[in-house]
Design goal:
- Helices cover 46% and strands 10% of the residues.
- It has 608 residues and is an alpha/beta fold.
- Among the domains are: 303-443, Rossmann fold (3-Layer(aba) Sandwich); 457-604, Rossmann fold (3-Layer(aba) Sandwich).
- A ten-stranded mixed β-sheet has the order 7-6-3-8-9-14-13-10-11-12, with helices on both faces. A two-stranded antiparallel ribbon has the order 1-2.
- The longest helix is centred in the middle third of the chain and has 33 residues, at 255-287.
- One of its GO terms (cellular component) is cytosol.
- Residues 1-43, 126-250 are annotated as: Disordered.
- InterPro entries: 5-nucleotidase.
Length: 608
């Protein structure tokens, strides 16, 4: 007896109450029939919680209809919600199997036993049965169109058009399952929908009016959406527009990159501020003449004049302490008086005149490098350098290079400094420099104070053994003046050999020509003198022709024919006078002329 006939029979028997014995009797009677298989499958699909006496649908109240379906009773049958849930579980299982089959391009064939029922393993979640050729889309659509899902009426549960519970799984198993879209491979079945209570108000929706058609519509909509859905096309970047890692990082910077960029911008702003500040300071420095200090010339282009500390300043008192009490007392004296300014020495006025020439050259040639460069070279200790620096700055001397050897002879550094002229108060060191081939002279201060010209450098030279060689002195000393005059007349057109100060005269002449090029001959800040004991008539012609052959011009030539040079030098008032004989040096020194002895030639041997 089917469940539909049982329900009709129970409805017609009014007043009959259900009891536990009747339910057990009906259950044993129906277990022998084929409908028991469907009840078993429904019970496994629903999986009610018997301890709570309610179905697996959360929130669905325990009722006799659900209980009867779970226990296999066919008197009333399951409620409409349970039927929809069972149907959806079957559809979900078929869709999952088709999805797995499509992934491997094979479709499995459900196995049936001899009576036509599905084997239990076919509905297992771990089923891995063999598969055959997958049907085409057209075949699936034609077979799906022939599938007729049963409709249940909302007014009567005993309609003859509804399918019985045992016919439903057989029809579903006989019909091929419609293809379902591979939406998700979630192994859990869909959660059954909640139903309204029996006495509650019924919602006027399609699900309650025709649940089977509603489920079939869902499957059809999903299939249609899958067929009509176009594959999403992703825009691909051509290889020509590929960017490197650094470029992509610049487009999509990280927080560390942003912090780094912020730090770089902050540093740039600080650097810009510093540059603007120093630019303003530089402009102010350049606009202030009193604060302007010209940069020293490059040594390879400059005319280097090395001056010792005793020649530049008067250090007689310190020298006396050194000779009498020793080096330690001398250093202690200098440290104690390092803030005491030293008085000018014999080379002081000469150095000031050299700086005036540099100033005039910079006015005419702002980028001129062929200038005088003064170097303070001394064997004093470095601790004495503080007093020397203070004295140099006090007098405004532009001396930037110092050489303090600490008791060692500074002669070894002269060539390293590219020295053109070395002036010192120590005759022994001057002799060493002469032997090294460097123009040198020992400085002597004048006995009287005379006025010197501050706007013109005046330099006086002796002829023989100073500008020229000592070959004529050899003849005069060895053979007398008569032989000397004859020799000079015989070799009048033969230039004399050069002496130790010839190079310095060339340097002065080169600078003079720079002023002449600017039409400054009459206002030239350099003037040279030749003061010699030769006679102009007998031996003067050879001297002038030699200077002409060298390409040098002398501003004034004074031939004294053996007369004293002191009175003439007083009229000239040179800043320095170079001579090789000490009696001329002493004669000029008495008149207040600053002299420089050149220890060169035969006269030095005869004096010794």
């Amino acid at each position: 007896m089917s469940q539909t006939s049982l329900k009709q029979k129970k409805k017609n028997e009014s007043g009959t109450k259900y009891s536990k014995d009747n339910l057990e009797t009906e259950r044993r009677r129906d277990s022998e029939k084929s409908g028991a298989r469907l009840s078993t499958q429904m019970r496994r699909a629903v999986k009610p919680n018997h301890s709570l006496r309610c179905c697996a649908m959360r929130g669905h109240l325990s009722c006799r209809h659900c209980l009867s379906a779970a226990e296999g009773t066919v008197l009333l049958g399951p409620c409409r919600t349970i039927r929809i849930y069972i149907h959806m579980c079957l559809l979900w299982e078929q869709g999952r199997q088709i999805t797995m089959i499509r992934g491997s391009q094979e479709i499995s064939v459900p196995k049936t036993d001899s009576r036509g029922y599905l084997v239990r393993n076919q509905w297992s979640r771990t089923s891995r049965s063999a598969s055959i050729r997958a049907p085409s889309v057209d075949e699936n659509r034609s077979k799906t169109a022939s599938l007729k899902l049963p409709n249940s009426s909302t007014t009567s549960r005993t309609s003859s058009t509804s399918l019985s519970q045992q016919e439903l799984p057989q029809q579903l198993s006989a019909q091929p399952s419609p293809p379902t879209p591979p939406m998700s491979l979630d192994p859990s079945p869909p959660t059954p929908p909640e139903t309204q209570p029996k006495n509650g108000s019924r919602r006027s929706s399609k699900m309650h009016e025709n649940p089977e058609a509603w489920a079939h519509g869902i499957v059809r909509d999903v299939r249609d959406s899958r067929d009509t859905q176009q594959p999403r096309e992703y825009q691909r970047t051509p290889p020509t527009e590929w960017k490197s890692y650094a470029q992509r990082r610049a487009l999509y910077p990280t927080q560390e990159d942003r912090d780094c960029v912020i730090d770089m911008l902050r540093k740039r702003e600080e650097e810009d501020d510093d540059e603007a500040y120093w630019s303003s300071v530089k402009m102010l420095y350049e606009k202030t003449p009193s604060c302007s200090r010209p940069r020293p010339p490059k040594p390879k282009h400059a005319i280097t004049i090395a001056v010792s500390s005793r020649a530049l300043f008067n250090m007689v008192d310190g020298r006396k302490i050194y000779e009498e009490e020793g080096l330690e007392k001398y250093m202690e004296y200098q440290l104690t008086n390092e803030n005491v300014i030293l008085t000018p020495g014999p080379a002081f006025r000469f150095v000031k005149a050299l700086q005036h020439v540099n100033c005039r050259l910079r006015e005419l040639y702002p980028d001129e490098q062929d200038l005088f460069d003064i170097v303070l070279m001394t064997n004093n200790h470095a601790q004495v350098g503080v007093r020397l620096i203070n004295s140099v700055n006090h007098y405004g001397l532009l001396i930037d290079r110092f050489c303090l050897t600490g008791g060692k002879s500074p002669i070894g550094y002269l060539k390293a400094y590219l020295t053109n002229l070395y002036l010192s108060a120590d005759s022994e060191k001057v002799q060493e420099a002469i032997q090294e081939g460097i123009a040198s002279a020992t400085m002597f201060d004048g006995a009287k104070d005379i006025a010197y010209c501050d706007t013109q450098l005046r330099v006086a030279f002796d002829g023989d053994a100073v500008l020229f060689s000592d070959e004529s002195d050899h003849i005069a000393k060895e053979h007398g003046l008569d032989k000397f005059f004859q020799h000079e007349a015989l070799f009048e057109n033969k230039p004399l050999a050069q002496g130790p100060l010839k190079g310095f005269l060339e340097d002065l002449g080169r600078l003079q020509k720079k002023f002449y090029a600017k039409d400054e001959r009459l206002l030239c800040p350099i003037r040279t003198y030749l003061v010699t004991a030769r006679s102009a008539a007998s031996s003067g012609a050879r001297v002038l022709k030699t200077l002409r052959r060298w390409g040098l011009e002398i501003d004034e030539a004074l031939f004294l024919a053996g007369a004293p040079k002191g009175p003439i030098l007083v009229k000239i008032r040179p800043h320095i006078f170079f001579d090789d004989q000490m009696f001329h040096i002493q004669g000029a020194q008495k008149f207040g002329t600053v002299t420089a002895h050149v220890p060169y030639g035969i006269s030095q041997k005869m004096n010794t």
